[in-house]
Amino acid sequence: MDDLQYGTRNKRGDWAPNQPAETAPLFALPPRLMAILKWLPHYFFPWNVIFAASAVAYWAWVIPPKETMQTFAIGWIAWLYAVNAICVLFFYGAFELHLYVLKRQENRFKYNGKFPAEQKSKAFWFESQNLDNMLRTFLSGVTVWTAVEVAMLWAYANGYAPWLSFTENPWTLAVVALVVPIIHEFHFFCIHRLIHTPFLYKWVHSVHHNSVNPSPWSSLSMHPVEHLLYFGTAFYHLILPSSPILMLYQLHYAGFGAIPGHVGFDKVEIGEDKLVNSHAYAHYLHHKYFEVNYGDALIPLDKWFGTWHDGTPEGEARMQERYRKRKEKLAARKARVEVRRAAQ
């Protein structure tokens, strides 16, 4: 498949789409009804339906009975960790195998023309991005994911979280199910801005940003503190009128949903003539430039706070102008400090 029909490639082999990154029309003002209706299928397919289905499957075949979850016990906790680890291995591993090991579509639609395995770096354990990312995913990521999952299921089982039944509250639960991605977006933007503050970035978030050229295993390659903040999106269900299935959907949206944004390819080829959009471009630009696109563009929070970069020259100019103003402020602050010191 010819990816140059959809974008351009520079001399370094990096590919960029012809169309700039866009925010969803859901919160646009004035409202654009036709744009929303045209976009609406993308809200569900393919990713959100997959994550919701995985939550239902967990509830049907993985989650233990309510009586078991009322008491913390190594048996059911270890069982959940094992299932989470196996699911991550297969889901993340499928993308890694298809795109990075077998390289079935070579570098077609790949934002960064190079592959992480080709580049050694002392920023990573054993100087290997892939090995570092995998170890952090299973040692910390799946562990924290499971811990949050266990804590929430225990809370539901003991009546500490509002558990509504689908038979009695179908419309309330339907609304909560619809806003799960919005809850994630709001939460992700807030904690993402928080961990980009200098202290937390240096000691926490820099671990994730070591993967400037992200790949599937980069998705959950984070510091344990960031893992806790990230999976903390499930804690909203301690106060929302919800159910364990929707809480699991929230967790799966975070855990499995990290893949599309870090897959490193704009489109994944399925067969010879089908493409699945990853919608990863906005987040790839965040990994490339660090201080843009803190959200995933479902809610235009970056536009509202002036940190949006759509990949165009205009977006680049806005980013550079913001950097220039910040540099001027820092220089002015330093000058004022020096004047005070001289006056003393």
TrEMBL record:
Protein known as: Sterol desaturase family protein
Gene Ontology terms for molecular function: oxidoreductase activity; transferase activity
Places the protein is found: Membrane
EC number annotated for this UniProt entry: 1.-.-.-
TM ranges: 43-61, 73-95, 138-157, 169-191
Ranges for domain Fatty acid hydroxylase: 178-307
InterPro entries: Fatty_acid_hydroxylase, Sterol_Desaturase_Related
Alphabetized UniProt keyword annotations: Membrane, Oxidoreductase, Transferase, Transmembrane, Transmembrane helix
PANTHER family hit by this protein: STEROL DESATURASE
Class of the enzyme per the UniProt entry, highest EC level: oxidoreductase
